[in-house]
Amino acid sequence: MKTFLAPLALCMALHAGSAAAQQDSTPPMSPQAVAEMTPLADAFFRSLQSGDSSKAFRELFAGTLMEGKQDELQTLITQTNVYLDAYGTLTSWSMIRSDCLSPTYCRAIFQVENKNGPMFYTLTVHRRAGVWMTSSIFLTDRGQAFFDLPN
């Protein structure tokens, strides 16, 4: 009997921790922060739309530590091109969710419509010297996880 209770207790503890984490939501980006960050995202998506992934990532990470990591940037470009080959040309994009750990460190999730279906881009951004800069990017074609994020 004891062997069955330990996994059950662990499972319940993990579920309770997950539920508590979902209740502790972070605030969305302020309208001012969204307005200030939007040009960065729009330039990125416009470059992708025009077929220039290299320019898109170069500009997205300009002035950051990632700018000097050419191997990682090339991997991002290559992987993005694989997605774009499958999903087709970008037709539109919109921010569907944002949240912030602080007023200067936020996450913005974009739904990107492509010729053959949607993709989702998560940009983690930080504000330094009055300018929003990209810390990281996550790209997926699976939107299900975004329904599980707290509001």
TrEMBL record:
The protein here is known as: DUF4019 domain-containing protein
Organism, by scientific name, is Brevundimonas lenta
| Keywords assigned | Signal
* Signal peptide span: 1-21
Q: Which domain of life is it from?
A: Bacteria
